[in-house]
Amino acid sequence: MDPQYFKSHTMCWGTLGTVRPFPSFRPQRDVVVIHEALVKKDAGTLVRILTNRNNAQRQEIAKTFKATTQQDLVAGMKKVLSGDVETLMLQLMMLPLQHEAHRLQQAIAGLGTDEETLLEILCTRSSKQVRDISAVYKELYKKDLEKDVKGETSGDFAKLVVALMNKGEVAGVVQTDIETLAASLNAKKTDAAPWIDILTSRDLNHLNKVLLGLERESGQMVIPALEKRFSGDIRLGLSVLVQCIKNPDVYLAKRLTGMKAPLVHGIMVSHSEEDLLCIRVAFLKLAGTSLYTTLQKHFKGDHLQALLAICRSED
């Protein structure tokens, strides 16, 4: 990690991200060092510089590199890097919305759909963010995200995912919503429709009151109740949605505990400038050890150094 990272008095210490603007940023200076590293195939230097710049600065480096060398930085990185570290570093070079669109495309491409990654993004992003991601998806892949998702899902799960892509904030009465969901749980055959309707159309403050009230009145926790009454993809979908309504940091921390490289990359890159500090705190409480230490047990080499730089420090 570059020691200069911690020496600035202008850093955004109030943010909940771990990757912040690099002090005294000089893109031309970085370009010279990066160009030398590409010639020498020095992956370590590429990792050190690019993981210690925020996304806006990385974009400026790529622009300056192109203007200075007439070469594409990402193309040059592909020649030097390989494996997991290449995948991670290329994700870091994407614009944030491009990265989310890329993750969604990967989740629905090929054989089988990665339902949980699809849910993770749609459940943890605001309605505006989802609209912006959808627009970028169309720009990148020349396809409509909602149509692609519909083509890869079915039944109540498809209805849930489409509702998540069109989230609104319809006014509701807390007690009425509690009674509606309680009636659904008590029916002989639980209907997913009221759950989809209410959980995707109210603001978070309202929904947390509804879930708390439902648990008090029914005497049972919502997630186990849902998992008992539903099956298949809709059970997963409603469970993830409720977890994200209650505490998205805890949900994302749980996802990270599996320590699968693609998942670790996706979450850490997506949240590095937003709220990775919160996810780190949740991870420590959940796993009993810090994210920083856990990464060291599962990864190695330049790949590990890149992940540690994004994680930033021990808890």
Written account of the structure:
- With 315 residues, this protein is mainly alpha-helical.
- The chain has 20 helices and no strands.
- Helix 6 (96-108) packs antiparallel against helix 7 (115-124), helix 6 (96-108) crosses helix 8 (127-141) and helix 7 (115-124) packs parallel to helix 15.
- The longest helix is centred in the first third of the chain and has 15 residues, at 55-69.
- The relative contact order is 0.12.
Summarize the entry for a quick read.
This protein has helices at 27-40, 43-50, 55-69, 73-80, 83-92, 96-108, 115-124, 127-141, 145-152, 155-165, 174-186, 193-199, 204-218, 222-229, 232-246, 248-256, 261-271, 276-287, 291-298, 301-311. It is mainly α and 315 residues long.
SSE inventory with pairings:
Elements: H1 27-40, H2 43-50, H3 55-69, H4 73-80, H5 83-92, H6 96-108, H7 115-124, H8 127-141, H9 145-152, H10 155-165, H11 174-186, H12 193-199, H13 204-218, H14 222-229, H15 232-246, H16 248-256, H17 261-271, H18 276-287, H19 291-298, H20 301-311
Helix pairs in contact: 1-2, 1-3, 2-20, 5-17, 5-20, 6-7, 6-8, 7-15, 9-10, 10-15, 11-13, 14-15, 15-16, 16-18, 19-20
Give the CATH class of the largest domain. Mainly Alpha
Give start-end ranges of low-pLDDT stretches. Answer: 1-14
Order of helices and strands: HHHHHHHHHHHHHHHHHHHH
Any idea of the CATH topology of the largest domain? Annexin V, domain 1
**Main sheet: strands, sense, barrel:** none
Annotation, overall tally of beta strands: 0
Q: What is the helical fraction, as a range of percent?
A: over 70%
What radius of gyration results from the CA coordinates? 22 Å
Tell me the number of structural domains.
4
- The 3D shape can be described as elongated
Strand content: under 5%
Going by CATH, the homologous superfamily of the largest domain would be Annexin
**Helix-strand category:** mainly alpha
Mean pLDDT over the residues: 93
The CATH architecture assignment of the largest domain turns out to be Orthogonal Bundle
- Tell me the number of helical segments per DSSP (H or I, 4 or more residues long): 20
Give the CA-CA distance, first to last residue: 17 Å
